[in-house]
Amino acid sequence: MAVKARFYRCEGCGLRFPALEEVGKCPACGGGVVRGGERGLETDAEHPSEPLFPPCSAVLENLRSAWNVGSIFRTADAAGWSHLHLCGITPAPPHPGISKTALGAERCVSWSYHPDAVEVIERLRKEGWTVWVLETGGEPWHPEDPIPEGPFTLVVGNELAGVDPEILSLAHRVVELPMRGCKRSLNVSVAFGVLALGISLRRLTPR
């Protein structure tokens, strides 16, 4: 079924806004609206997944925010990452907060829950995965840096406490994104997106 976005303008307050269905009043002031243009939207069914090989996965260690988890699901799907390990207090599907930002990506990327992230990382290392941790204080990462060639997993940690020191000791490499502002770091889902898409673009081969 085709999905269309419709664009409206309120005759009262002047608000211009989109909607995926017919609307008769402004969501801000309740006034009458004038319908403008519309555009068709690509559906998920029209855009099948293309997972990377060798595979990439992520370990989400004690994230607090379901919205961050949902955003990471959506980015992992876009980047072709194959699996998310949800550990500790990290929210897991089904969860309304995850669905709000994942927009269905939680059904496209496989995931598993584990109470202890350390055990997950020890197992991944034994299975031959290269483990990087994204954490403040690590080596500055740049898009042109060498990336692992085999199976790769990226660990991101709690929004306030960061990554467990025991996990840091297990990592093959600890990296950070260089910051130029007054803040020391990005939101965890944004930081994951920068590194995940950067690595995926490097791994893609020309067609």
UniProtKB/TrEMBL annotation:
InterPro entries: Alpha/beta_knot_MTases, SpoU_MeTrfase, TrmH, tRNA_m1G_MTases_N. SUPFAM superfamilies: alpha/beta knot (SSF75217). It comes from the Bacteria. The keyword Transferase applies. Residues 58-195 form the tRNA/rRNA methyltransferase SpoU type domain. Keywords: Methyltransferase, RNA-binding, S-adenosyl-L-methionine, Transferase, tRNA processing, tRNA-binding. CDD domains: SpoU-like. Gene3D superfamilies: 3.40.1280.10. GO terms for biological process: tRNA guanine ribose methylation. One of its GO terms (molecular function) is RNA methyltransferase activity. This is TrmH family RNA methyltransferase. It comes from Thermosulfurimonas dismutans. The lineage of its organism: Bacteria, Pseudomonadati, Thermodesulfobacteriota, Thermodesulfobacteria, Thermodesulfobacteriales.
